């Protein structure tokens, strides 16, 4: 017989699912913000970085000691303090040791820790590490009750909530992270400049961010580079805590023989992988988008050295570099978002002054706590020394009590009015300390500690003295990591973008003659050179030639479609090769029911005559039809069932001639045609019909000079009729039968 056991749930609550999910998601979001993504404004560290440094300190990996395997460090971190994956912890350790990723490395690495090309570090079992002087400065005072400690995740140990941070790490090394609904991105700065700003803020508590920018002019990236932002832009970013900085590579010109030169890039922007940068430049060269650049070579060793060879000696280096800045990551925009956790763990976007003020407040609190801790230690030691002095003054009696009394400790306390601490210290004293010289040492120590205690009491009683003490500490940090040291010298310079005229993208394309071929089914290709398209030109089965055009790779090609829209494509973007090309619709958003009716080179400043098959049209400035997007630009509005059919050059004459499928020809002045930017147009030639195209519609249209006479092309050549009186009329008339010998296809043959 089996017994069924039932479990009764004591706490059952009816909660809407949305509330339950919201509560749990909020807990997750807060955990991500506080415990992973955002740095603390006081020490500039995230929990994983703080735990790494603390674990290495516990392993005694100070700068003067030897290295230990990174696997040992990572094992201690994830075993005692950080219950996460070892790869994440090791990646954090590696980054703190990379001098191209961190302005002031907190860890000194031995072995392969990656490089600026983007190569990964070796496995943790192969690499070794120890702390740097900067990390040591961050942790000075941990044993002196400078900060609070909390239990680790398993409750078996303790870890610091925040580090004492004698070094302004948040701004000096920067930080980046993405949390739930918020992110942070802080660039590195120069520590000596930060110390100057901190000292100014101590002396002038009401100083503004603009005042502090006299000392901190901008970021100082570990990979150097040149900041090319205006002062007003930088100031606005620091005053709001949000903004960005334009950072360019540092370059110089090296003269060669015979008047040649090469450009040498010695510093690249922060967080740009050199190998990918070189690949991108090579790719652009292959796409013929860098016509001024002949070659690029990477001659880097430990220092960056990229060689750029111009196409010819006549190429200006500034123009070539401006082109590269525009098209590659030789120029980047580094965003600023000073979103950090304050002392109470609340995220906030702070300006420069607030960040520095929070750091000073933290250092002030650390100074108070260390001073109280030291004062307590001194008082405890003075208490013991007072007992020792009493012992020396009554040495014989003390020895007698110890030898004869059953309980020496109570007897000593009662006889000499000692405290428990003093009596215990006397009983633990070694016999060899009972000499006259030792008594003199105790008195000197007593005097020195008494003087130090008075200084500490005065320090704790006077805020002004505490700020003066902090000022001295900041001066010491500024000297240790100042501009006279290899680590502290400013690396990022300041400059201005070259004041060169704005150059279109076409100016950076290598100019070559091409022949553009468009098939009836919409396949487009470019043939090198200006060649005649004849019967030997191959097309797909069932396809044939529709339009052809001789152009240059730098030309803008205008496509006029039957839907009344103009599309624009630079000649360099048209596919080349021996094949059939590509569908034009891969490059333009051309509807399936629309066809290209005209293809021409954009010349600028001219006028065009556009017309529908039903006989409506108008003049439009060529500059207004250039499209900036794939979707094109609507110019000719169409009625239902109507289609655009013609686009002709209109600035080559003063007269318009039209001919319909009904073989009626009309000549009228160009001045009668309205000029618009967009519309349906006016009637060019009227057709006798009850509906569209019943009488055939418009077959061809041409703009010409009346002085040249009426002309059309035949197999024998161009035929001209000087006297056009019989066909001269007004716009929107029906027209008359064309002259004898006019082509049966009703076309003039002068496209475009």
Short description:
The chain is of the alpha+beta class. It is 31% helix and 22% strand.
Chain-wise SSE layout:
Blueprint: H1 17-37, H2 47-58, E1 68-69, H3 70-81, H4 86-97, E2 107-110, E3 128-131, H5 133-139, E4 149-151, E5 158-160, H6 169-173, E6 175-178, E7 183-186, H7 191-203, H8 209-212, E8 226-227, H9 231-240, E9 242-248, E10 250-255, E11 261-267, H10 274-286, E12 293-298, E13 306-310, H11 317-327, E14 331-337, E15 339-341, E16 347-349, H12 352-393, H13 395-404, H14 408-416, H15 420-427, H16 436-461, H17 463-480, E17 493-494, E18 513-519, E19 523-528, E20 545-552, E21 556-561, E22 565-570, E23 582-583, E24 596-601, E25 607-612, E26 616-621, E27 633-634, E28 644-649, E29 655-660, E30 665-669, E31 682-683, E32 698-704, E33 710-714, E34 717-721
Parallel strand pairs: 8-17
Antiparallel strand pairs: 1-3, 2-3, 4-5, 6-7, 8-9, 9-14, 10-11, 11-13, 12-13, 15-16, 18-19, 18-20, 19-23, 21-22, 21-24, 22-27, 25-26, 25-28, 26-31, 29-30, 29-32, 33-34
Helix pairs in contact: 2-3, 3-4, 7-12, 7-17, 12-15, 12-16, 13-14, 14-15, 16-17
Task: Considering the chains and any ligands shown, give keywords for the structure.
31% helix, elongated, Topoisomerase II, domain 5, 22% strand, Gyrase A, domain 2, 17 helices, Topoisomerase, domain 3, 5 domains, four-stranded antiparallel sheet, alpha+beta
């Amino acid at each position: 017989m089996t017994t069924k056991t039932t479990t009764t749930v004591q706490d059952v609550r009816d909660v809407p699912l949305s509330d339950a999910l919201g509560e749990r998601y909020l807990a997750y979001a807060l955990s991500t913000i506080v415990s992973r993504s955002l740095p603390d404004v006081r020490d500039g560290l995230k929990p994983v970085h703080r735990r790494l440094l603390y674990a290495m300190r516990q392993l005694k990996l100070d700068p003067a000691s030897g290295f230990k395997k990174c696997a040992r460090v990572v094992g201690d971190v994830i075993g005692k303090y950080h219950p996460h994956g070892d790869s994440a912890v090791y990646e954090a350790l590696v980054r703190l040791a990379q001098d191209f990723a961190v302005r002031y490395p907190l860890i000194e690495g031995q072995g392969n820790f990656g490089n600026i090309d983007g190569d990964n570090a070796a496995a943790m079992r192969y690499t070794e590490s120890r702390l740097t002087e900067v990390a040591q400065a961050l942790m000075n005072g941990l044993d002196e009750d400078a900060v609070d400690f909390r239990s680790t995740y398993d409750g078996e140990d303790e870890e610091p909530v925040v580090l004492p941070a004698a070094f302004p790490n948040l701004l000096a090394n920067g930080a980046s992270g993405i949390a739930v609904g918020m992110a942070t991105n802080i660039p590195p700065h120069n520590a000596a400049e930060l110390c100057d700003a901190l000292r100014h803020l101590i002396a002038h508590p009401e100083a503004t961010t603009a005042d502090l920018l006299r000392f901190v002019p901008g970021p100082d990236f570990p990979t150097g580079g040149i900041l090319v932002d205006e002062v007003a832009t930088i100031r606005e970013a620091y005053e709001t805590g949000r903004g960005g900085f334009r950072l360019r590579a540092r370059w110089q010109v090296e003269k060669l023989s015979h008047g040649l030169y090469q450009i040498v890039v010695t510093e690249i922007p922060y967080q740009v992988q050199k190998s990918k940068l070189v690949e991108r430049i090579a790719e652009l060269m292959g796409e013929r988008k860098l016509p001024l650049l002949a070659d690029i070579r990477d001659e880097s060793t430990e220092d960056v050295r990229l060689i750029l060879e111009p196409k010819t000696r006549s190429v200006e280096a500034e123009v070539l570099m401006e082109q590269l800045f525009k098209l590659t990551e030789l120029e980047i925009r580094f965003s600023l978002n000073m979103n950090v956790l304050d002392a109470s763990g609340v995220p906030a976007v702070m300006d420069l002054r607030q960040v520095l003020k929070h750091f000073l407040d933290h250092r002030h609190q650390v100074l108070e706590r260390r001073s109280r801790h030291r004062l307590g230690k001194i008082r405890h030691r003075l208490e013991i020394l007072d007992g020792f002095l009493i012992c020396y003054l009554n040495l014989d009696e003390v020895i007698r009590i110890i030898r004869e009394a059953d309980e020496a400790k109570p007897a000593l306390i009662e006889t000499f009015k000692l405290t428990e601490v003093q009596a215990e210290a006397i009983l633990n004293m070694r016999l060899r300390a009972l000499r006259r010289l030792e008594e003199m040492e105790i008195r000197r120590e007593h005097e020195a500690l008494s003087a130090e205690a008075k200084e500490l009491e005065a320090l704790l009683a006077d805020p002004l003295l505490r700020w003066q003490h902090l000022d001295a500490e900041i001066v010491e940090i500024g000297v240790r990591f100042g501009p006279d040291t290899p680590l502290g010298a400013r690396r990022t310079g300041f400059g201005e973008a070259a004041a060169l005229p704005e150059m279109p993208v076409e100016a950076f394309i290598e100019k070559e003659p091409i022949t553009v071929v468009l098939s009836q089914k919409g396949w487009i290709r470019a043939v090198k050179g200006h060649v005649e398209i004849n019967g030997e030109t191959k097309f797909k089965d069932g396809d044939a030639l529709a339009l052809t055009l001789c152009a240059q790779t730098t030309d803008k090609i205008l496509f006029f479609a039957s839907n009344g829209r103009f599309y624009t494509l630079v000649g360099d973007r048209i596919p080349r090769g021996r094949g059939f090309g590509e569908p034009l619709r891969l490059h333009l958003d051309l509807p399936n029911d629309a066809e290209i009716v005209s293809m021409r080179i954009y010349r600028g400043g001219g006028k065009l005559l556009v017309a529908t098959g039903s006989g409506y049209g108008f003049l439009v400035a060529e500059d207004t039809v250039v499209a900036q997007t794939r979707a094109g630009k609507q110019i000719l509005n169409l009625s239902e069932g109507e289609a655009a059919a013609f686009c002709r050059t209109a600035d080559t004459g003063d007269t318009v001639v039209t001919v319909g499928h009904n073989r009626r020809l009309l000549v009228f002045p160009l001045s009668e045609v309205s000029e618009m930017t967009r519309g349906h147009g006016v009637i060019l030639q009227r057709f006798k019909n009850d509906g569209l195209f019943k009488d055939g519609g418009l077959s061809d249209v041409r703009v010409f000079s009346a002085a040249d006479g009426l002309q059309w092309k035949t197999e024998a050549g161009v035929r001209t009729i000087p006297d056009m009186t019989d066909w001269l009329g007004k716009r929107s008339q029906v027209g008359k039968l064309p002259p004898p010998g006019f082509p049966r296809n009703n076309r003039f043959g002068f496209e475009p």
